# Entry
Amino acid sequence: MKRYFTVVVAVILLFTNIITAYACDENQSNIRVREILFGDDALRYSSDENVKLLLDAMYLCCEQADNQGQNKVDQLKLKKVDSVPSISDINIKNGELIDCSHIAWDSEYLTNKKARKNRKRLLQNAVNKVFDFGLFNNWFGSETGKCNSFAALLYYSHILADYLADDPEDTETQVKGKSVSAYCGQPYIELNNNKPNFTIDQKNTKATFINYSSLDKFGRAGVVFACIGADTISNVGERKNMVKLRPSGFNLNKDNYDGIVNSQPAYVYYRCHLLAHSLGGEEQETNLVTGTNYMNNQGMKPFEDDVAKYIKSTGNHVLYRATPIFDGDNKVVSGVQIEAFSIEDAGNGICFNVYFYNVQPGININYASGENELADMIHDSEVGIPFVVNNSSESNPDLIYEVNKHLAVLFDDQKNSGIYNTMMGDINTIAYETRSIGTNGDNSASQYLKMKNYEYQYYKTLKLYVPMLLRNEEFFKSVFK
# Structure
């Protein structure tokens, strides 16, 4: 069985011998699993002993390799989880992780049946330790019913975390003292209810100007503030050659990510204008940051085009401020805040306050240095379960099909509820739309970005509805009050 998006992952294989693997990352899995279980309350349970027990067991089932994890085995024994195996009885090699931990929950790992069985039973027993599923489960054991399906939900949530292939902590930031949530599949997020923070005096300005900040002590661009009018747009000339311009962090733009980054050559970094060339921005270091292809094209460009189109059609003026957001002394921006406000019509034409994430789906960025590497390491395995397939079934399952099956067991008593049916409707829509990828002639990188978007939509759907449903289950709310 192959992952649905075979064109892209075949390209990914070209990089696997030179890049650090990002699959089965413990921290990103723990964050995603907590959020699927507890939604927006996930942080509240980050130190909960029962959550730690479940995550330790999930690590040993899904992520353990090369004799690591003895401390987690010891902790589960201290918590008196039934039949905790030794490390040697669950151990596999790091190179086997994808094949062992990304197959369907009920599948055997033929290379090491014993280790696979022990890992799976360990997670089931840990779930059974934390929750009381009632007489039926106690009679038939942890390998059936809600206990088994809760363990399967943890297992598949770990696989979903690997599909997303990012650590939310890398993209959480602050803008002017206020927290900005982590990237979650969309290139931007609105700030301050999408209202820019211009003063009354600034909003009464009609004289065009462009003010660039000086480079700071680290050689980084600062705020660009402008009032853009028709004369600004009409004076835009040809773009100057920028080959010799090196915004901070840009000198490490050397890896080509064909099939991941939607450009040719497929470099992750652009010399990204804070004030777009189309809006009168100059090709100079005080107007440039190291920005990803994704931030530049999927994020900023549509907004820049809207401003340019508005000015050309009305002749009105637009206040425009671009603020690069750096974390500490990092060389690469975490993102860019852009505020815009049309003056003559008091913001009726243009009015936004948006933060654009400087991310590239599938790529891990070191914002301190500018180094980058492939993060999405879910390769084209014959046994790895795909996100979606056409005509999914027991004999041809995908991740969504399998999770749906276990959600039906977990929430059997809530199948007629509005929450459950709304969740299933949203999930089925995501599955249907994901299967349409590639039908309109998109290139492989464009398909890849669409796939990532649907994977995030699916994750957000689980994060929204699963916690609400779990809070209605006696086994869950008796433990997590």
Remarks:
- The chain has 16 helices and twelve strands.
- The chain has two domains: 6-165+380-477, 180-374.
- The CA atoms of residues 43 and 413 lie 28 Å apart.
